[in-house]
Amino acid sequence: MGRPLEIVLDPPDNGRxxxxxxxxxxxxxxxxxxxxxxxxRRGDRFSLTGLQSxxxxxxxxxxxxxxxxxxxxxxxxxxxxxxxxxxxAAQAAPALLTRKSELHGRTPRQVDYLxxxxxxxxxxxxxxxxxxxxxxxxxxAVDAFEREHVERIILTRPAVEAGERLGFLPGDLAQKVxxxxxxxxxxxxxxxxxxxxAKLFERGSIEIAPLAFMRGRTLNHAxxxxxxxxxxTPEQMKMFLTRIGIGARAVVTGDLTQVDLPRGQKSGLREAxxxxxxxRGIAFTEFLKEDVVRHPLVARIVEAYDAQTARQAPEATxxxxxxxxxxDRRSRRPR
Length: 335
Fold this sequence. Notes:
alpha/beta
């Protein structure tokens, strides 16, 4: 671990210190988790141990300067992400007209994603959980609606976990598909407020539906989001993309590491990335684990699973080659 790195925060201010540390030092625990370090405190003196202690010092000083008011865990986690990307001007993101005035891209790829959505009729956001793909897409839809660039918002997901045969679930059709669409509702409520969203649902200005309901429709002057697109088939993806009408804008989001389709079924999102990569007017943003904006542990979880996948790939290839070799030997045996 090496020798501890010790600092004193100045000017001395007990109020700032309390806001920095949080209740029972919960904010310090977030900084420890983010940089895999240990922080010991006595008054305004801090001792940091770990390979990334210098980054921890930078974070402590950064948040101490902003600790005139209470700092929540969300403030700390989002601030840590911005610190990681400060040199790449993450703050230069397009401004979005939503209920959350502070909403903007926190990483360079999030900024690129927002710009791509504003500049293209169809945008794909592909990457791991927690990178803001869906939330920023919904925020862009709300922004376009509030600025009257579109007349309605349409959000859809494939209900693939139940094979789109939802009969075993209780309730009417709306109640059956509701669990699959809940993340989209949550984002709308957060960005527009519950009452306003409810009124827009009543007017038909916002619509949330399973992907199967898109067949046969032409969607004009709408902002359409297809979420969890890794669970579409190639036929479903083509069907969705050909629904786009005049004055419409579409965003497709998904994580190719979490495909729930039956074994052997190709993901429509994977095929679309291959087929449409060079089509003019379509943009692709590929998110990485560095873009995760959830709990600091989420980025490490993504990294651990990626490492496991990389280790297993050579083993799978070797087993496949052995199986093919055994099959060839059996086919050559005299009968």
